[in-house]
Amino acid sequence: MAEKITSREENYSQWYIDIVLQAKLADYSPVKGCMVIRPRGYALWEKIQQNIDVMFKDTGHTNAYFPLLIPESFIHKEAEHVEGFSPELAIVTHAGGEKLEEPLVIRPTSETIIWSMYKKWIQSYRDLPILINQWANVLRWEKRTRLFLRTTEFLWQEGHTAHESREEAEEETLTMLNVYKKFAEEFMAIPVLTGVKSESEKFAGAVDTYAIEAMMQDRKAIQAGTSHFLGQNFARAFDVTFQTKEGSLDYVWATSWGVSTRLIGALIMVHSDDKGLVVPPKLAPTEVVIIPIFKNRNKGEVLEYAHKVHADLSAGFSVVIDDDDQNSPGWKFSEWEMLGVPVRVEIGPRDMESGQVMLVRRDTGEKREVKAEGASEAVKELLVDIQLNLFRNALTFRKEHTRNIHDYPAFKEFFEKDGGFADTLWCGSAECEIKAKDDTKATIRVLPFDQDHHEGTCTICGGKSAHRAIFGKAY
Amino acid sequence: MAEKITSREENYSQWYIDIVLQAKLADYSPVKGCMVIRPRGYALWEKIQQNIDVMFKDTGHTNAYFPLLIPESFIHKEAEHVEGFSPELAIVTHAGGEKLEEPLVIRPTSETIIWSMYKKWIQSYRDLPILINQWANVLRWEKRTRLFLRTTEFLWQEGHTAHESREEAEEETLTMLNVYKKFAEEFMAIPVLTGVKSESEKFAGAVDTYAIEAMMQDRKAIQAGTSHFLGQNFARAFDVTFQTKEGSLDYVWATSWGVSTRLIGALIMVHSDDKGLVVPPKLAPTEVVIIPIFKNRNKGEVLEYAHKVHADLSAGFSVVIDDDDQNSPGWKFSEWEMLGVPVRVEIGPRDMESGQVMLVRRDTGEKREVKAEGASEAVKELLVDIQLNLFRNALTFRKEHTRNIHDYPAFKEFFEKDGGFADTLWCGSAECEIKAKDDTKATIRVLPFDQDHHEGTCTICGGKSAHRAIFGKAY
User: Fold this and answer.
1) I need a labelling partner for B433 at 20 to 30 A (CA). Which of A189, B81, B380, B426 fits?
2) CB-CB: which of A37, A46, A64 is closest to B38?
3) Max Cα-Cα span within chain A
């Protein structure tokens, strides 16, 4: 390693940036707030895309592509939408050497351009549902940015669906929320809370916004994905009606839902440690690194043996072999730990003689000697175990830092000290949300689906409670 | 089919647009010159991406992502580059509610932003080569657009590589040209000519531009992909030097190469017919459509049998079954022919009784009855045969419309009548290129690699020839 990674304890923010830069996941670009996603970071995005895209297709969706540029007037057609997004827009005023008659905005999200097309495509219930997803770049002019977590331009997917009934659209909204939850937990090994957002935190133009929320190692929250029930808001704004089965005319019901390259930030922040990046095996572009350990006198033999093991393992896994002879094995161990490869295979002269290899897992550092011919099976088990262990650790951490809090002094003390998720009761007023935010920086992450015990007194004002609410400080 | 497709003979341009719109591959958008790629069109792009991306990775490349926006001053750093791209730029002047200090342009191509990053990443020969590809959208403000073939925004991949020697960069340029040729011929079933471009047709900023050129059914040419040897032009513009193995300092050598959604336009124009789209099996999102033929009295049995065949074939192919009972079998045959599915399986009551199915190939319309249990094997063979047949037909067509022409009256007559590829000798002067273009609209598509017989007289001016040159009218 060229440089040392700052420890989490010393400076959590710097630790995060050190990992992103030193593992070459991303870099700052000459354009303020825009990042470059380097090959190691983009490989993570490709794994995310491949796996979640299968889940989209399994739930009946197809991909399409809509224009980057949107006539400025479209953004103004939905009242809340324009209010939410206007401050963040980048505007094209000139093109082809001329001033444009109407300025174009770079999409901050695509509801408006997509619903202008849905107007063309939808006449009757026979044209419904439309279940389209788009993989694209979007742009929101942010004042404060942080690599992956908040950047002016980011990559994402945005689903936009059109339905003939409220019920069907609401069901779609929750189906996609569950796809996100499943993906976060099973692939990213990140446990997430789900629920609905309060009025102040919902998407500009939505009736209801649902989210998956994850806890980072600094106990702050990340909104890792959102699924919006849009009601008939965009259908009204773009006058998209359809002939119902009964022959009447009605506005179309809508949803939209998205996850972005922010997921990579969450992945880093949940699993990594002071040695560097830790990647859950199911999303690891490289699952195994083989490091042969040799001296000049036995180099040939050891390398031959190591390459044989490499060939065997490559049949089932994504494997690299680091047989460079400039760097010491110790240097290589640190380097590949920093890069987050889940399993290291060490092969020295003694392993060769005994027909063995040494497996070292990235998450715990635990070592295990296995017969070379059984290595594939052992690696397979190890990858499954690492995946589960990362999820278990993250879940334990979240549980340890989630507290039932029902009085305001305790609430303030919680967020002054360690913080985490405060499981509270809330009266439903925006005033209490503002007060909590002003006093502690904590906001409502979700109103969880489980509202069985929402009766009592508001943790903030002491009035009658209306909801169970999870508060946390958010990225 | 709702509407009839215009025949090629009647109006070739309208035939093309009819197919794009009626097969729902793309649609016009509210933003001038920008298209919407609909799910059926995007599915083709996904197949193209998946297959060519494997070839990029097999040749050592990795994917990354660079910002959409480029500081305007960057475009000005390379003299030819700015001259070529300035007229086509879309410019962001305002963002986040404020006027920007420096305008930003939406990338028309990414050499400049990428080389500004390579300057950060390259110090020594140890940092080379860099072999990066990007899948992205780009924008060029075009005056005249046509769905897929020329649109203001389009999707593409752009490879950008950095090397320590001229030889290595030149080799990379040709490696990628050959990847494109192989992809075009083996996957798209489109035979292509390869060679170098003349000075007037090369990329703005390149030393040499190589291209693959295909002939459409109207005998016009499409430049389907380009690979550029950039020399040290961008390294000089962005001051990217490296320490050589010998310890001296040198500018880095570069290449760039790209193919775009234009490939979909070429695919349509080469293979389709008056019935609609024809897709080569290797790129067909749906390979097989099953159409059960039933009356009310035998509907249940026939559908059961058809669904069994569907289940069997789905193990090996991408199959849909059209068991809707609103439309007649004849209507469905036309509809699925229009959509370009390579193999149709017809299953009626008699087929059921005899344990057979009828296979119909999209390219020739030929029918063949096979035993249901051997259907998978037969479909497999048929798909291979269709793929080869499409390539053979396209190659035959190109040969029939390629002519050796060595005098100017014949040249002019050729392009006045049917046209095609004129295999000529050329003196190398821009004047002759301009004269030919003014008189016939034909331009040099490539100077082919085979220059064995380039000695003689220029087809245009009669002077001493310097090159063998292929002329054609281009899209």
Assistant:
1) B81
2) A64
3) 86
Give the domain-ending residue among B397, B420, B454: B397
Window 115-154 of B: residues touching A by CB (8 A cutoff) are 116-117, 120-121, 132, 136-137, 139, 141, 143, 153
Between CA B91 and CA B103 the distance in angstroms is 7
Residue A193: give its domain's CATH number: 3.30.930.10
Q: Taking a C-beta distance cutoff of 8 angstroms, is the pair B415, B473 a contact?
A: yes
In a domain, B6, yes or no: no
- ∠ CA A444-A437-A221, nearest 5°, is 45
In this prediction the pTM is 0.97
CATH number of the domain to which B363 belongs: 3.40.50.800
Out of A4-8, A186-190, A338-342, B451-455, least confident range: B451-455
HSE-CB for B139 with a 13 A CA cutoff:
25
Beta-carbon pairs below 8 A across chains A and B? 153
- B418 belongs to a structural domain: yes
- State the best of B25, B28, B66 to mutate against chain A, taking most chain A CBs within 10 Å: B66
What φ, ψ does residue B139 adopt, rounded to 5°?
A: -135, 125
Tens digit of each residue's pLDDT (9 = 90 or more) over A129-157: 999 999 999 999 998 999 999 999 999 99
Q: Do A331 and A230 belong to one domain?
A: no
Q: Give A60-97 pLDDT, tens digit per residue.
A: 999 999 999 999 999 999 989 899 999 999 999 999 99
How far, in Å, CA of A375 to CA of A147, rounded? 38
- DSSP 8-state assignment for residue A202: S
Same domain, A356 and A427: no
Is residue B132 a part of any domain in this protein? yes
In chain B, the number of structural domains is 3
Write down the pLDDT at residue A455.
87
Residue A97: CA atoms inside 13 Å, Cβ hemisphere, count?
9
Domain CATH code at residue B412: 3.30.110.30
Same domain, B116 and B170: yes
Q: Quick one: which H or E segment has residue B37?
A: strand B35-37
Which of B36, B138, B240 would best serve as a mutation to test chain A binding (most A beta carbons within 10 A)? B36
Residues A435 and A331 both lie in one domain = no
Whether A125 is in a domain gets the answer yes
DSSP E strand boundaries for A43-201: 62-63, 69-71, 90-95, 98-106, 130-139, 153-163, 193-196
Residue B38 three-state SS: coil
3-state helix, strand, coil in chain A (%, to 5): 40, 30, 30
Q: Are residues B300 and B366 in the same domain?
A: yes
For the residues A350-355, what does the mean pLDDT come to? Answer: 92
For A403, how many CA atoms within 13 A lie in the half-sphere containing its CB?
Answer: 19
> What token pair was written down for A384?
């499954």
- Same domain? For A361 and A331 the reply is yes
Spatial contact of A344 and A360, defined as CB atoms under 8 Å apart? yes
Residues B191 and B312 in one domain: no
Q: What is the CA angle A235-A241-A246, rounded to 5?
A: 135
Among A130, A209, A119, A206, CA closest to A168: A130
**What span, in angstroms and rounded, lies between the C-alpha atoms of A203 and A223?**
12
B413 and B383 in one domain? Answer: no
| Residue ending a domain, choose from A325, A360, A385 | A385
The span from the CA of B238 to the CA of B112, in Å, is 8
Alpha carbon dihedral B161, B163, B166, B168, in 10-degree steps, equals -90
Summarize pLDDT for A183-223 with one digit per residue, the tens. Answer: 999 999 999 999 999 999 999 999 999 999 999 999 999 99
Range of B380's domain? 281-397
Task: Residue A153: list chain B partners with CB under 8 A.
Answer: 67-69
Has residue B1 got a pLDDT over 50? no
